[in-house]
Design goal:
heterodimer, A: mainly beta, Immunoglobulin-like, 5-stranded antiparallel beta sheet, 3-stranded antiparallel beta sheet, B: Immunoglobulin-like, 2 domains, rod-shaped
Chain lengths: ~150, ~350
């Protein structure tokens, strides 16, 4: 009964209202700019996305926190890629990706893309349409973490 | 990140759909587009699925002004003195992420080294700019169907390259290899309304705005055209290719009535052979070269001795060629159809000393 009630709640109430107490997620984007100083050293600066033109490198940062009173299990973060952004890499976060609009998922190196002549080629970062991180272990109460990926403005 | 990620097996690898990768655009996302990124979290508590949580951010793509003016081909345009409508070809590419107008200025360089190495020594006249009509006529080459521009290209859409023809007239009486350098410079203008040149564009300076800013991203063009000024340019040139003719006339005694051909002397009755050599030291062939030579009164022309289009070897007339030409007292004349650049051709005839 309790389970049924929960499901009913989940179905009826806006997602935010229920989940807001449990998990906090926030989503930031920065423009990655490389500047070279007088000594020739390169510095990478992350700036607010005020001036953004095609070709600029973007860093998307997702911060999550379990603000609830119980561990959060089967924790999955899904991020469809905006149409105007080409995926570059996800650092060392090793996400699953989809190259077909979210139908199939896998590591980028395991996926392939059909060609017009019927053959398939290995998927490239530019083919990625969705990114997903699925956590094996529950997020403990108060547990936080950060995920990131890079993209380029098309 | 403390939690380990699960590598779930890819589901349904066999049932693959054919989703083509989005085409890549060089100029990129249209200015003013808002990019929204949304991430969602699905999770369970106590084995019960909880409501999905999501977070978004968005930003606006700014306007990147970029363009390219390139000479088509990397050779000079060869012209002859007095030629009208001599054409040099350029290509203009709108690499910005918005439809723009482009103001055009075709100018002449003043002295200095032209695009293909020569020194600029003259100016072409009546310089005009045409836009290639890709619907009619010869696409890629200047023809009557192309559009004469009035100082600007109207509404050039993103990622589009068009051909522009700088068409000029070449003054007469120019020396071989004289060079005129021309520069075509395009400056990005607001797209505005079709049929009207848009307003000048300025880069957004000072504080960034959350809206659509303008950033100049063009590279430097010819000398004096800096990078990031909203303009780009390239040089091309005209090189005069003309024939330069020089005439020499030689003679030798062939025979006299007493010595015959053995050491003949110039006595009355001796036969003299004249060789008129025309050398072309220019870069273009000379055509319809008319040679005219009056025979001195002390000589009598020997009928049927004219040889045309003969050759010279190491400065010596070979006295060869084909029969031709004509004689109308006192003039020997003949026409050589073509003297190629660097070649020498002759007219040979004989006469008798009175």
């Amino acid at each position: 009964m309790r389970t049924a009630l929960f499901l009913l709640f989940a179905a009826l109430l806006p997602g935010q209202a229920l989940a807001a107490n449990q998990v906090a997620l926030d989503n930031n984007v920065f423009v990655e700019r490389v500047s070279t100083d007088a000594q020739g050293k390169q510095r990478i600066l992350l700036e607010e996305p005020k001036v953004v033109v095609p070709g600029d490198r973007l860093v998307f940062v997702l911060n999550y926190r379990n603000a609830g009173a119980q561990p959060a299990d089967k924790f999955v973060i899904t991020n469809p890629l905006p149409a105007a952004v080409r995926f570059a890499d996800a650092g060392d976060t090793r996400p699953f990706v989809s190259v077909d609009g979210g139908k199939q998922w896998g590591l980028l190196s395991d996926l392939s893309v059909p060609m017009t002549d019927g053959t398939r080629r290995a998927a490239q970062p530019a083919d990625v349409t969705h990114i997903r991180w699925a956590f094996q272990n529950p997020i403990p109460v108060g547990g936080t973490g950060k995920l990131m990926f890079r993209g380029v403005v098309k | 990140m403390t939690s380990k990620l699960t590598y779930m097996g890819a589901i349904g690898m066999a049932a693959l759909s054919s989703v083509a990768a989005a085409p890549a655009f060089a100029a990129g996302t249209t200015a003013g587009t808002t990019i929204t990124n949304t991430a969602t979290v699905d999770y369970q508590v106590g084995g019960v699925a909880q409501g999905q949580q999501s977070a978004s951010n968005n930003f606006t793509v700014d306007r990147k002004i970029n363009l390219l003016v390139e000479e088509v081909g990397t050779v000079t345009t060869n012209v002859v003195p007095g030629q009208t409508n001599a054409v040099t070809t350029f290509q203009l590419t709108n690499s910005a992420n918005e439809t723009l107008d482009f103001a055009l200025v075709a100018s002449q360089i003043a002295g200095g080294t032209a695009a293909h190495g020569g020194t600029d020594t003259f100016d072409a006249t009546n310089v005009r700019v045409y836009r290639d009509n890709i619907a009619t006529g010869t696409v890629g080459s200047w023809d009557v169907g192309d559009t004469l521009l009035t100082g600007y290209v109207d509404e050039l859409v993103v990622d589009t390259a068009i051909r522009l023809f700088v068409v000029a007239d070449i003054p007469a009486a120019l020396a071989n290899n004289a060079v005129a350098g021309v520069t075509l410079r395009a400056t990005a203008r607001e797209g505005g309304v079709a049929g009207t040149q848009g307003a000048a564009i300025t880069e957004t300076t000072g504080a960034n705005t959350a809206g659509k800013d303008t950033v100049f991203a063009d590279i430097a063009g010819v000398t004096g055209d800096a990078a990031r000024d909203g303009a780009h340019s390239d040089n091309d040139d005209y090189t005069v290719q003309t024939a330069t003719l020089a005439v020499t006339k030689t003679s030798r005694v062939i025979s006299d009535p007493f010595n015959n051909t053995s050491n003949p002397k110039l006595i009355p009755g001796a036969v003299v052979e004249y060789c008129i050599a025309v050398a072309n030291s220019g870069s273009a062939p000379a055509t319809s070269v008319i040679i005219n030579d009056p025979v001195p009164g002390q000589l009598t022309f020997s009928a049927g001795t004219i040889l045309l289009n003969g050759t010279v070897t190491a400065g010596t007339c070979n006295a060869d060629g084909a029969a031709g030409g004509s004689y109308a007292a006192p003039n020997v004349s003949g026409t050589i159809a073509t003297i190629a650049a660097g070649a020498t051709r002759t007219l040979v005839f004989r006469a008798t000393v009175n």
